[in-house]
Amino acid sequence: MTTANTAPIPELYVSYDSAAKLKMEAAELPSWDLTARQVCDLELLMNGGFNPLKGFLTEADYDGVVENMRTADGALWPIPITLDVNDKFADTIAPGQDIALRDAEGVILAIMSVTDKWVPNKSREAEKVFGADDLAHPAVNYLHNTAGNVYLGGPITGIQQPVHYDYRSRRDTPNELRAYFRKMGWRKIVAFQTRNPLHRAHQELTFRAAKEAQANLLIHPVVGMTKPGDVDHFTRVRCYEAVLDKYPASTTHLSLLPLAMRMAGPREAVWHGLIRRNHGVTHFIVGRDHAGPGKNSAGEDFYGPYDAQDLFREHEAEIGVEMVDFKHMVYVQERAQYEPADEIEEGVTVLNISGTELRRRLQEGLDIPEWFSFPEVVEELRRTRPPRAQQGFTVFLTGLSGSGKSTIANALMVKLMELGGRPVTLLDGDVVRKHLSSELGFSKEHRDINIKRIGYVASEITKNGGIALCAPIAPYTATRRAVREMIEAYGAFVEVHVATSLEECEKRDRKGLYKLAREGKIKEFTGISDPYEAPEKPELKLETEGTDVDNCAQTVLLKLEQMGLIG
Ligand code: PPS
Fold this sequence. Notes:
This protein has 567 residues and is α/β, with parallel strands linked by helices. The protein has three domains: 16-158, Roll (Sulfate adenylyltransferase), CATH 3.10.400.10; 168-330, 3-Layer(aba) Sandwich (Rossmann fold); 388-562, Rossmann fold (3-Layer(aba) Sandwich), CATH 3.40.50.300. The chain is built from 21 helices and 20 strands. Helix 5 packs antiparallel against helix 6 and helix 15 (405-419) crosses helix 21. The longest helix is centred in the last third of the chain and has 20 residues, at 444-463. The chain is globular and about 75 Å long. The model has no long low-confidence stretch (mean pLDDT 95). It binds 3'-phosphate-adenosine-5'-phosphate sulfate. 3'-phosphate-adenosine-5'-phosphate sulfate (PPS) is lined by residues 401-402, 406, 429-430, 433, 442, 447, 450-451, 472-475, 511, 513, 522, 524-526, 530.
């Protein structure tokens, strides 16, 4: 029988006194500003959540982890924890050197002694770790389009933990949790991993899992980084706190985990198990499609529904945590209670609301019955996600120069202002280049910076309930996707491809630029001497040839209405 190991596990922090001295010394070192994901990884490295890792993976560890889920000395570890950096920084660093690792505010969190520097084969990493080199997988997309080209590896000396201003009392390091279990006398603990709000079915299944294992329960939600588009962690934590009251007193603990998920399905499940072992738990709930990333680019699931359970079971002894089957709970109307789906006789009425249906009801402000969720949870979700017609959103028109983006966007702006209710901001390509991006040219790097600036401003507008209309060329698919992810955290992103052909744009040549581009007087001109990657699945494709502006704007308006964005 597994019982909790509550002895402290090793951390990578130096003592408080040494930390102050080290911090002074570190100020002289070359320094790397950590990305949001790296801050999450570093926190769990330093506090022992990623034990036995002692730093960002070296090349030998990385090869082993990618190939067969083992570090060079044979420890089970399924996910590469790597410090990816850009070429510019990498060029200034050589193995043998120490670097300071800083958070977004510039605070020094750790020193890393660089032992390894290499250029990874990202396609191999994608194939082996995530099962396919397919950009539809969020972690593969991150790998190719966000992560730097070079990896640095080496041990970490921890100076201080990242500062969190939110929910401090709900955050526990592995050793704090171990001490808590010891203090409470909890010998068996079932952990529940989640990135979603909890509804009644989750409460029932976690309660049942703990009861069956005769264990206490740890609700251990991820608040680092989850899947793009998930409900933000502030809202979720308020929901978890409301659900906590529904468990018998003193049986259940809620603790927030600053993990950056990869959505790696089976490998992720093993990783989650190891992390939970480090946090002192004895049992871990693994369900159907654990940490699943959604559909691949062919519209199929990346992993089989029980692959995660199978891989976990295979390594269960080594993980040191017992797997508990996630029971699929359904509501039986006749008995007005939740029961495991596989224990229900034929002929009874089973009620269920899918995730998609729940989102639809929230978006449209429809009823969400009490048998499905707790009123406090529904209220929190409604506060964050009011019906779509009251949320902010972004319309992103992309197309060649002279395709008509700005003209349509202007007409659309006026029509939306006529409707009223929400402020409308137009971020036109030319206007943005004048006010926000005047120093930028038209290289791929500069275009990407330009589009990400537009995306950032649009996401802020969307977050604050306004309407952002963007009308840049935005020629690159990956950059448009990055902007989509930024915005979908707060509201809808409506990509409109203004699909006027190159021939037509050139024929119109409203600014005389095509002529100059043909003559070679303007370099890197989209469509002539620079690429345009047409959107594959925009929300709307506008064929403008033979259609007047008013009609095009009207078509966009109808699309917005169909999506429930305007009332
Ligand atoms: S991008 O790629 O999205 O950053 O471009 P954008 O900011 O929309 O800027 C496009 C406008 O700049 C003018 N212009 C050029 N466009 C494309 N390629 C080159 N080399 C270039 N040089 C100048 C052009 O007027 C674009 O305006 P629109 O409204 O698209 O015609």
